[in-house]
Amino acid sequence: MHNLQINRITAVLNLMTHRQMSERGIDWGNQQSELRGEGVHHIVHCPVDMNTERNHENVFEASQRLNDLVNHKNCRVFVQS
Fold it and tell me: Which CATH superfamily is domain 3-80 in?
């Protein structure tokens, strides 16, 4: 059994930019399929780039998404960054 299943994770909030995923060799499409196969029901990509002038907007949006997953959808969330 995988760690996500062991910890009853039902949502993933991915904060990585497309560039960061590319640099780490992550294929977002494949990863989404793998997460669904592990029982993750909510998969959210909300990139936060701390090197831009809009980073405060990105962080605010990510926090709103996290709040929704936890408080409105009752998810156990893994934050991927």
Answer: Protein tyrosine phosphatase superfamily (3.90.190.10)
State the alpha helices, DSSP H only, in the chain: 3-6, 18-23, 28-37, 55-67
For 59, phi then psi, to 5°, come to: -65, -40
The two three-digit tokens of residue 37, written as one number: 């196969």
Cross-strand bridge partners of residue 13: 44, 79
- Based on its alpha-carbon atoms, the radius of gyration of the chain, rounded to whole angstroms, reads 13
* pTM (2 d.p.): 0.90
- Does the pLDDT at position 63 exceed 50? yes
